[in-house]
Amino acid sequence: MTIQEIREYLGRFFDAVELVGDADRPITAPAKIEAAQQGEVSFIANEKYIRFLATTQASLVIVHRSVCVDEFLQTTSFLKVGDPYSAFVFLLQKFAKPRTIAKKGIAASAVIGEGVSIGEGVSIGEFVVIGDRCSIGRNSVIGPHTVLLDDVTLGEDVTLFARVTLYDGSRLGNRVVIHSGSVIGADGFGFAPQRDGSYVKIPQMGIVEIGDDVEIGANATIDRATMGSTVIGRGAKIDNLVQVAHNCRIGEDTVIAAQAGISGSVTIGRQCMVGGQAGFAGHLELADRIQVAAQAGISKSFLQPGIALRGYPAQPMRDQLKHEAMLRNLGAMKAKLDLLEATLKERHAE
Amino acid sequence: MTIQEIREYLGRFFDAVELVGDADRPITAPAKIEAAQQGEVSFIANEKYIRFLATTQASLVIVHRSVCVDEFLQTTSFLKVGDPYSAFVFLLQKFAKPRTIAKKGIAASAVIGEGVSIGEGVSIGEFVVIGDRCSIGRNSVIGPHTVLLDDVTLGEDVTLFARVTLYDGSRLGNRVVIHSGSVIGADGFGFAPQRDGSYVKIPQMGIVEIGDDVEIGANATIDRATMGSTVIGRGAKIDNLVQVAHNCRIGEDTVIAAQAGISGSVTIGRQCMVGGQAGFAGHLELADRIQVAAQAGISKSFLQPGIALRGYPAQPMRDQLKHEAMLRNLGAMKAKLDLLEATLKERHAE
Amino acid sequence: MTIQEIREYLGRFFDAVELVGDADRPITAPAKIEAAQQGEVSFIANEKYIRFLATTQASLVIVHRSVCVDEFLQTTSFLKVGDPYSAFVFLLQKFAKPRTIAKKGIAASAVIGEGVSIGEGVSIGEFVVIGDRCSIGRNSVIGPHTVLLDDVTLGEDVTLFARVTLYDGSRLGNRVVIHSGSVIGADGFGFAPQRDGSYVKIPQMGIVEIGDDVEIGANATIDRATMGSTVIGRGAKIDNLVQVAHNCRIGEDTVIAAQAGISGSVTIGRQCMVGGQAGFAGHLELADRIQVAAQAGISKSFLQPGIALRGYPAQPMRDQLKHEAMLRNLGAMKAKLDLLEATLKERHAE
Q1: Do A170 and A251 sit in the same domain of this protein?
Q2: Which of A33, A259, C15, C163 could hold A52 in an S-S bridge, CB 3.0 to 4.6 Å?
Q3: pLDDT at position C24, please?
Q4: Comparing C-alpha atoms, which of C268, C320, C266 is closest to residue C293?
């Protein structure tokens, strides 16, 4: 791809892509600015990386239109745009090699149940097991060793990597991506305590529903509802090793980072961001666009949209930062207290 | 099933099941009170849900015998019991559809090692691998893609979902249930530091023993002992993504919620409850019936049965709540301190 | 093995192994001191276990050369060494039974892609799937159900247990061990926010590189880099359920305990120790030999080698312990403050 071709490609998504330098040079790969070699394209979205312009070997760098690049033109060309980060992301998609998760068609070793409906263009990998009455939408790809129990429905263009388990009744929308090792629809953790201290299992009769454009990382677990559905809203992104318990509802375009844990019957609004290792007590609700800091412990509902939460138990960011500042100040408080005490004693002795 | 049949079924487990309303209506499914439709059964165990009686479409609702239902009898019938929650749980079991994890018999694709003993009525799914000298008790079900290394013993009526790994020597009791992706008996994390900063692996020669009626969630890990056994006591329930390290002993009927982590050589008593994301330092002991709050960090042994623990480092609930109240009160302390200082200065100036 | 043979074996690794007692007794197994039976060997490395010498049934006990054993010689023999713990670890390796993860050769059910290079002495288990252009070094063992996508390279003597996934392009050194359920090279969690609140996936085009002698536990996840490599340094040990995000660099001989989470682009130095459930914010750096306490939250870089960190947000151990002591002392501060206030009021009233 030449620099000119890159400019044209980006021009389809972004206004006013300005070229400074040589249009004809061939570009073979993207790279980080500090590691880029000749023939590679990189980007600068953060001012503190501008210093790398003096030393980078990159043949092309995407920068903000305000960056002055004149002194570097001998070795490097530039595309100036309004949002260099997004431009580079779109460019990465252009360079991404197609990855083979499963070859086209149905592997001879796959075991397909009765009454299964398989759309056009589907790829089903080695040793895949598909239960009875499942439905696989067009162009979906199912990686090797993935298991679908009975009555699972996949939309179109779904990608399941190797070794995913979908329990019976799971329903996935279009363009859902699930990485290796994740388990969707296992029984919720519900046991009724008996008088003798033992437990009786509460049958988990619901399912999991996953909306369009959801991506789920590796080794995550999303439990089925006791009754009804655990719901992952359209566009939500869920990272590795996240736990979503039974009956939760995760809002559209909400992002949950690695190892966060959402207890049963929690409702999280749209466009929220949950940090890594954050934990939620059960049966609570978060409004839209709430940001939860990493390792926070959410112990009650927060119904005001757009706030940020932090700490254990979590509270709104401003209160928590004030609290943390006061904690850091404890030594000074103690010193002042001791001084007052000494002053009082002294005066008393006078 | 008619309401009368439900009444008779519950009468086998509970005393004094009183019917108010129509005995003959057919009931087809259970549902949550706020979502139930005609022909469905629901329950109310918590007073705050009683308001839903005015609007529910349920044909049958199980309530506490103290609830006055007269005004709702036109559309809804009632079963009055002493414990509506438990009654509903037993009823759920009645409605639960049998789920096919693996078809009866041994799948043609399964690979069975030498000297394996398989009881009557066992189901072994597609692509299951069973090592040499394993023993599978009667009526056990092994889901597709599950792997048993050598010398594994399963009791009767065991259920292993798809994609479970049992390392060599693991011993499971009767009626054990393990969900997809869990790994039982992997090597404990034991390495002996060398003078040059590197590590020599400590062979992990023990096994994992799991008692009767244990249920383990999805993607959990329970490591084998260095010598002897890591033990999960009868009736214990372990949630998704929980880590139990080598040489631990988990007491009977103890419940451990998702993402909790139990370090090596920890002993937890019977009927304890461990909250989600709680962590335990190694080599410590908890007495029976102790409750550990979510995200708590247990850094020492607690030998008094029945207490509740919370915080980091965790302490008994009363102490911790007092501590947290004092933390919340820090602002008031600071204000008082500043006032005292000002008062003293003022008086000095007088 | 006789006691004399054990003495000779240990003499190959340790100086001055002194035998006290009977050299000819046969020893059949290692055991913990409190559980050891006749014919078994145990060890004491910690003074508080010396009391067990009076009651142990062990035929041989390895002790520090300073321990006086004369009164126990009737039933037990002793090997005295400078480091009984390390001596016992080496002895465990001698007793460890060889474990069959996969039988020699290539299982008939395995599916091998095109252009795959397989070294001498390799074992490939049942239902293994190996993508195109992979390379498997000599004597490596690949457990059943393990999946390698395209272009994966394994060194020599690698051990992959059952049900491991290596995504395309992963590169493993020699003697790497990976336990069941772990996923290496899944996509990093990178999504570019759009104006409408939705996300565009950032293609994750890098790989994972794992150095020689690394061991990774069960159900861990190590994500591929966005560009370039996520790197696990030679000799590092990573426990169960650990998350290592995209673009991280973990130093040589660094140990990371269970359920710890390392966010994207973190660099950790050599010979660090990270406690269980500890969490790292993204884009930060830790120097060599730093110790991170369990459940700590690392929110910034620490560049001084050898320090210990603890708390949330984490700070150097001494500061944090001082801080925690002050927190424990809050009640006393409050009491003193109230007393001062009362004293002042009283004097004012005088």
Answers
A1: yes
A2: A33
A3: 94
A4: C320
The domain of A198 spans 105-321
Q: A109, A130, A146, A205: best mutation site toward chain B, by most B Cβ within 10 Å?
A: A205
**Other CB atoms within 10 Å distance of the CB of residue A74:** 6
Question: Is residue C117 located within the same domain as residue C8?
Answer: no
Residue B350 predicted with pLDDT over 70:
no
- Chain A positions touching B162 (Cβ under 8 A) are 129, 147, 149, 165
Give the minimum alpha-carbon distance from B190 to chain C in angstroms, rounded to a whole number: 10
As a whole number of Å, the end-to-end CA separation of chain C is 89
pLDDT mean by block of 10 residues, chain A; 350 residues: 94 91 94 92 92 93 94 92 92 89 97 98 98 98 98 98 98 98 98 92 96 98 96 98 98 98 98 98 97 98 98 95 90 89 81
Catalytic residue (one of C64, C145, C179, C246): C246
Test A85 with C168 for CB contact under 8 angstroms. no
- Helix H, strand E, coil C: the string for C17-34 is CEEECCCCCECCEECCCC
Higher pLDDT, B122 or C331: B122
Which chains reach chain B with 3 or more Cβ–Cβ distances below 8 angstroms? Answer: A, C
CA distances from C95 to A188, B206, B227, C180, C294 (A): 42, 12, 11, 24, 33
Q: Do A96 and C201 touch (CB under 8 A)?
A: no
Q: Which member of B95, B218, B257 has the closest CB to residue A183? A: B218
Q: Bridge-partner residues for A77, per DSSP?
A: A60
Q: Choose, out of C112, C127, C129, the residue to mutate when testing the contact with A (most A CBs < 10 Å).
A: C129
Give yes or no: residues B176 and B188 share one domain: yes
Question: Rounded to the nearest 10 degrees, what angle do helices B330-349 and B317-328 cross at?
Answer: 50
Three-state DSSP at C268 gives: strand
C88 and C173 share one domain: no
CATH of the domain at A113: 2.160.10.10
Q: What is the identity of the amino acid at B42?
A: S
Q: Is the pLDDT of residue C319 over 70?
A: yes
A203 and A287 co-located in one domain: yes
**Domain tally, chain A:** 2
pLDDT at A13: 87
Contact A277 C281 (CB under 8 A): no
How high is the pLDDT of residue C129?
Answer: 98
Interface predicted TM-score (ipTM) = 0.93
- The active-site residue, picked from A64, A246, A323, A348, is A246
Higher pLDDT pick, B73 / C152? C152
- Quick one: DSSP state of residue B37? -
Cβ A327–B331 below 8 Å, yes or no? no
Can you give the pLDDT at residue C212? Answer: 98
In percent, how much of chain B has pLDDT > 70?
Answer: 100
Across A226-235, b (16+ Cβ under 10 Å) vs e yields bbbbbbbbbb
Say what the pTM is. Answer: 0.95
Judging contacts by C-beta atoms under 8 Å, the chain C residues touching residue A236 are none
Nearest chain C residue to B201, by CA: C89
DSSP state of A15: S
pLDDT tens, position by position, B160-219: 999 999 999 999 999 999 999 999 999 999 999 988 999 999 999 999 999 999 999 999
A189 vs B95, B180, B258: nearest CB: B258
The reply to whether C145 belongs to the active site is: no
User: How many whole angstroms separate alpha carbon B143 and alpha carbon B127?
Assistant: 9
Q: Which helix (H) or strand (E) holds B321?
A: helix B317-328
